[in-house]
Amino acid sequence: MEGHGTDMRKWSLARAGIRRLLLAGACCLALLAVLGMAGSAQPSRQPAVPVPISQTCSWLARPAEGSTSDIAELAGQAGLNARFVPALNLWELTCAGGTSGADAFALRRLAESGAFEWLVPNRRVVIAAEPNDPGYTAQWNMRIIQAPAAWDITTGSRQVVIAILDTGISLSHPDLQANLWQNEDEIAGNGIDDDGNGYVDDRWGWNFVASSPNPDDDHWHGTHVAGIAGAVGNNAIGVAGTAWQVQLMAVKFLDRNGQGSFLGMLQAMRYAADNGARILNLSVSVDGDLTAEERRLLDEAVNYVKDRGAVMIAASGNAGASTPAYPARYPDIMAIGASTSSDERWWLSNYGPGLDLLAPGAGIY
């Protein structure tokens, strides 16, 4: 086996040029309560927000209570495909073919049809921006948080499940394999939803990008986050995680470009909470403010996770802004900013009201 530096550069657990707030530990959010499919013909209404062409050519719509409209037919008339997500009581409307924009007038007619309570663009969620200063070659972060003193008390517990909601986790990484969460109630590869959780063959987690049971990392970001949180310690391989013993649940909702959707984030959070995660880590950010409807969805999500005894910690964002980015800005989510090896706030880390604390986040190995 190669030495620490070579091994970790080889496996992407710590690459030169990687810096940011990748929390070695926790976070928590969750997902929406099951409200059931609604419906009632309502008087024609204006959409809750303007209906512009979405960045992702995708919209989220909450069905109106008691509505009897044929939403799939209405969507088709607007040049959209429609998919109902029962767990979230949401319709996902996407451009046919996934590439061309839908007609704005047709979208407005759809929003005003009375079939929906509201309709909003399914906005993009991305990994928090990376600092570009030179990389460190040692884990200064463990020393500055006095991890060795903590390890004298405990090196973690296999009873704790940390969900990494990100680009996935490398399932073959030698410094992570022993700590990967497995769904013990699922038999991999038999094509059956053995545990009845709605996800077939999810032995190793779930991939919401491809709707598949393979959450392997095709980027690197999620693997790096997982390593900081829970790389196996004292094994003469690579680096030591903050917790040497832990279970790391791979929940992939970001693609190979580090991008995902608001809906994908909500689905990932619900999956983690439903499958036993006590901590949910989201090192991602959403640009700008949320609409009232998006805040309602996030509120439902947070309450869902809290009801299951889980917590969430999210990156405050790395834009140098004077307020944390969502989802960290939400009051019941712990917002963590990035600090440097000199124990000061990294200059691009978001700060201001709502920031809960700083943790090592620039130049993490």
Cα(first) to Cα(last) distance is 19 Å
Largest sheet: 7 strands, parallel
How would the global form be characterised? globular
The arrangement of helices and strands along the chain is: HEHEEHEEHHEEHEEHEEHEEE
Would you mind describing this structure in some detail?
- The protein has helices at residues 4-11, 71-77, 104-111, 140-144, 147-151, 221-230, 262-274, 292-307; strands at 58-63, 80-85, 90-95, 116-121, 124-127, 156-166, 205-207, 245-252, 259-261, 279-282, 284-285, 311-315, 334-339, 357-360.
- The protein is an alpha/beta fold.
- The protein folds into two domains: 4-33 and 126-360, Peptidase S8/S53 domain (Rossmann fold, 3-Layer(aba) Sandwich); 58-123.
- The chain has a seven-stranded parallel beta sheet, with helices on both faces. The protein has a four-stranded antiparallel beta sheet with strand order 2-3-1-4, with helices on one face. Strands 9-5-11 form a three-stranded antiparallel beta sheet.
- A hairpin with a 4-residue loop joins strand 2 and strand 3.
- The two termini are 19 Å apart.
